[in-house]
Design a protein that fits this description.
The protein is mostly beta strands. The strands form 7 sheets. It has a 27-stranded mixed beta sheet that branches. A hairpin with a 5-residue loop joins β27 and β28 (615-640).
Length: 934
Amino acid sequence: MKQFKPNLIKVALITGGVAFGCSPTFAQETNSEAADEANVEVIQVSGIRGSLQRAQAIKMDSTSIVEALSAEDIGKLPDTSIAESISRLPGLAGERRNGRTSGISVRGFNENYVGTSLNGRELLGMGDNRGVEFDLYPTEIISSIVVYKTAEAGMTTQNIGGSIDLQTISPLTAKSTFAINGSYEKNAEDSPNPDFDNNGHRISVNYVDQFADDTIGLALTVASMESPRQEQHFRGWGYAGANADNAVDGVDVAEGTTILGGHDSFARSAMLERDSIAAVIEWAPSDKLNVQVDALYIDFVEDDVRRGLEEGGAEWGTGEYTITGVEDGLVTSGYYDGFYSVIRNDARTQEADLTTVGVNAEYILNDNWTLEFDYSTGKVEKDIIDVESYSGVGRAGTDDRPITARSWEMTSTGAVYSDHPSIAPVDLTDESLIRLAGPQAWGAPIIGADAQDGFVNQPNYEEDLDTYRFDAKGYVEWGVVTGMSAGVIYSDRSKTKENNGAYLTAPSYPDDAAIPDVLGVVPLDFIGIDGILAYDSLGLYQSGYYTETDAKLVQNDRLGDSYTVDEELLTFYTKFDLEMEVGDIYIRGNVGVQVVNADQQSTGFSTTSDADGMTVAVPVSGGADYTDVLPTLNLSAEVAEGQFVRFAVGKVISRPRMDDMRPNTQASFAFNDNQITSTDPENGPWSGSSGNPELKPLEANQLDIAYENYFSDTGYVAASFFYKDIKNWHRDTSVLTDFSDVYIPDLHQGSEGQTPATFLGSVGSVLDGFEGYVRGYELQGSLPGELIHESLEGFGLFASATFMEGEVDAAPTQTETRIPGLSEESYSMTFFYESDGFEFRVAATKRDEYLTEERGTSLALVDATKQGGTLIDAQIGYDFSESGIESLEGLRVTLQAQNLTDEDDIQASQADSRQITQYQSYGTNYLLGFNYTF
């Protein structure tokens, strides 16, 4: 049986320092073999075409079904964000969060069901769960990215959606390099907030070299960035049942007609600052020993302000309203007679640090067998300070305050407001009128209903992951089995959340006072409102201006959402490499099995309230111990030169979400008069929730078939079909529950002693055991222009389309069957030209509606439906290496535009897309950059 040899393209890539495979030593082993066994002339190909060629080589060589992305040059991925780049790969789709592409879905599953690794080692995220926020990782450290759509036995990050491996270079095989990258960034929209500017920058230094007779290699990257964002944001509270008695003559309000219950809308400005250091040290003292140490440190800070209004509307804010228009069961226009507007000056600062270090040692025992040891450790710490500050026309309960009355009209982006037909408007920019005090009676009894002038949420997270791995791999001659590998992996993971918070009361209480140090006016013209006064609420809080009252004394969801989850995994695997010839068809592949034993334990609190309204917290714990057996098979048949048929089957799992594994239970009551007096349980004061520490992994059996035709170094077409038979899925359940048993009359009442209008509320929990499926088709192609006509040399097109469908059983009493991250259709296209140093590129992605989640009350994650959209980016540049100007040799300049068409993000009710629940507009972002390689 002949041994497989790398093709000429791959050998050229390997000698350029590009890593292949899902583990560091696999890349090193393949690199050395290819360089020794192939006697070829290496031709360096750079730029867009070079990146496509390298990515295609990775895809061709893999026995699994993969997608690949390669940096154009060291330290330069095609985009400013890892997320932006990989969102254009077939079967992948990006999700914007606060104006940045951050989340990634693979084959319909969002990042919580996708494994992410750095050089084959599991990578920690900086969010609430396992999913990685890809926009927070610097592109400058990445050489290539491989997306594994099918699993192999040796992969510890296999997941239902797939696995994404971020790969750095191998410094011993890469060319010596010293490069500086920089850019200036500006948003098309001026900052609406006077204390934030609209300018940002990025700068990075990449260094690669070899020492000690090429036995030591070093790759070092230092990167820093400041990136601004501007946002216009409308959020609808929800849609209540409309009262037909409030309609004007001639307007018919049918039963079941809904009406906007209120809004909180704001203008947001943000600045993301990120500093990172990455290093790879490789030591090869002999032909038998190779040691690599790689480390990554990221310091991330994001400051933002959200200034706007919170106003109750019809039903949920006031019963005094008039309906003037109805269309197909939705009130489209009307006016309400009054609500004391809450001017919100909210500010948030998020700080996170990530440190990850890996050590890999590979020793070649003999010509056939290699031993490998790998250790990695990672740690993430994240702290959030989110300040809400309230102001208005005077403290709640103050006599003779002017009340805000408005007309409204529903549009495709939410509500647009105008003056009431008969009640004079209130000037919310009048410094002599607006007072720094809560205009609504939202305070808990511990401080007094009229004493809440703000609130601060301060959750903090800490996560640790240590992994030890030992592998043996070698060549054998057992018929069609030409190689085998076996290993054991142990990982120990822990995640802790402390959900802190405090009520804020201004020093003027029980009176009110003018706002100190007004910064200016923030316009809200995008919803038809002139604007509101701006001030520095975070600065006031940090200066000690407010009196703080610890919320966990009375809010059961504080300790009720504080927990520690510990998880130990012990994995054994065996994989056999296969090679055979059937007729004239050469077939490669692998078959193997992975056995995973999990021991998960969690601790937290069960919380209720006593007769005095104080939180009673009882420590609770729970957990489970179980074993999963995961077989996999991958085959790749070269049916003709450059044409492959690939087949894969396997069983895959995704570990449960960390927040779902908490053992906590809680029952809560909102001391908000609007909710206390509402008869609608959806807007009522009662709620409860619980976690489930005994959750088993999400599980699926999957089948993949693909055809790939590579007709040039950068040209191919491919089609694939996949089916995932989901055998275990988790669902959030919400059961309407009677809270009469926990009702305390002297405690659970409004500011004026009102009894709750309803004792019904929702209790949420997490269950497993649900089944479903996802199936889909992927079409993709890469076409170099010269294959059409020689005059088109330098032009190229890459495009893909993905079509999916899927569902999972709904939870009891629920109707939700969707899978988070699944869009039924998604498309991507990149058109480029590159010749004689000039280049331009236009890239577009499009996806339709999908289920996601966002931060709600107390920064908790809640489900939401996004409408999808089309994002278009463009870039133009020139490489002076082609100019003939010796002094500019190595300089490259680029101008990029992101979100060229100013695409909005819109969320709406699944039942009626006209019921807009959230609208966000961000503007176009521009970057002027340079790259200089010495």
